[in-house]
Design brief:
Length: 214
Amino acid sequence: MQGNEDIAQKIAEHLLQIKAVKLSPNQPFTWTSGIKSPIYCDNRVTLSYPTLRTYIRQAFVSLIQEHFGQVDLIAGVATGGIAQGALVAQDLGLPMVYVRTSQKQHGLENLIEGVVKEGQSVVVIEDLVSTGKSSLVVVEALREAGCVVKGMVAIFTYGLKIAETKFQEAKCSLVTLTDYDVLIREALDSDYISQPELESLIRWRENPEGWMTR
């Protein structure tokens, strides 16, 4: 689910301007999962722009208050959601933890770093959602620790069907500041991409695995 339309458009515009999002239909990127993608998103870049960083923090706070109400804890997904999670937690006056998507191989081998208490309600902060696999590892870790996960907020989602299905199966609500549809529409309106490139980007989202074979 996407939040406010005006916020979604503004953030999409800024992500393109600072080159946090790169669109390259003719020379696709390769994800860790092996999926060939015409789009690459690195929202960590937003932290280098104070005005945009503040805007995202404020938008996250509004999103959490509107969709999830009062919560006890903010959890950032390592590593992209850690900084944003800390900023949001500071603004809301809440404790914060961060959660790895895989167990570290030394020390205490923790997934969760920080203090969690059984029964705490928590909202998870993520920078982006692709297939949803790693994001939901964090949700499950918090649930196993006894937390009540109210949902997840993210800056951006590709809106892939596989992610939607996984979040539904996990019974976890996902709300984002902007999304793929808004982003590619803004990219076309700003002449960042051409109409044929837009059509290629739409085909990719419909069938990421088979997109390169067409």
